Amino acid sequence: MTAGDHASSGRESSERPGGAFEFIGPLRDETAPTTAGPLVVRIPRGVTSKQALLAALAQGLRLPDYFGWNWDALEECLRDLSWLSAGREVVIEHAGLPLRGRSRRTYLQVLDAVARRWRERSERRVRIVFRASHERAIKRALAGGRGDGDAESAGNERD
């Protein structure tokens, strides 16, 4: 992914819900960089269950054995990341919007809180990336709206 792939996400203050996320054009099928580069975790389209999402994150992030398989445990681990190499950048890329309704909102709130926390700290960069076409649905979900009436939920997502 190049810097040219990124939409201008600096328009919104990081103080607003979702302001700490990045929104990009269509994702490319790239292989993850070596261990010296960022740890890239790709969440595929079509993830509809909390357990499937947590499993993808646990595997991709190599979450520790004590991970509790719930939202609080996910937030705790994402705020820590001490089991990864010091300073290693973490990128969580979403090919689609996972989950629906309240579960989606909770997941987005966890990611938003974590992204904001890491922006305040300098020892590691954590990036949460979504496709630009999902920005509106994400902001609606974080603002308390349903957030699941987007094109993807209707099964006709466009690139």
Question: What does this molecule look like?
Answer:
This protein is of the alpha/beta class. It has a single domain, classed as Barstar-like (Barnase, Chain D, 2-Layer Sandwich). Helix content is 31%, strand content 12%. It is built from 4 helices and 4 strands; from the N terminus they run ββααβαβα. It has a 4-stranded parallel sheet with strand order 1-4-3-2, covered by helices on one side. Strand 3 (90-94), helix 3 (101-120) and strand 4 (126-131) form a beta-alpha-beta unit. Helix 2 (71-80) runs parallel beside helix 3 (101-120). The longest helix is centred in the C-terminal third of the chain and has 20 residues, at 101-120.
Quick rundown:
The chain has helices at residues 50-61, 71-80, 101-120, 135-142, and strands at 22-24, 39-43, 90-94, 126-131. With 159 residues, the chain is α/β, with parallel strands linked by helices. It has a single domain, classed as Barstar-like (Barnase, Chain D).
CATH architecture: 2-Layer Sandwich
Poorly predicted ranges? 1-13, 29-35, 150-159
Shape: globular
CATH class: Alpha Beta
Widest beta sheet: strand line-up: 1-4-3-2
CATH topology value: Barnase, Chain D
Order of helices and strands: EEHHEHEH
The description of the largest β-sheet is:
4 strands, parallel
How far is it from the N-terminal to the C-terminal residue, by CA?
16 Å
Number of helices: 4
CATH superfamily: Barstar-like
Considering DSSP H and I runs of 4 or more, what fraction of the residues is helical? 25-40%
Query: What share of the residues does DSSP label as strand, in percent?
Result: 5-15%
Secondary structure tally: strands: 4
- Global mean pLDDT: 82
Total number of domains: 1
Secondary-structure content class? alpha/beta
Radius of gyration: 15 Å
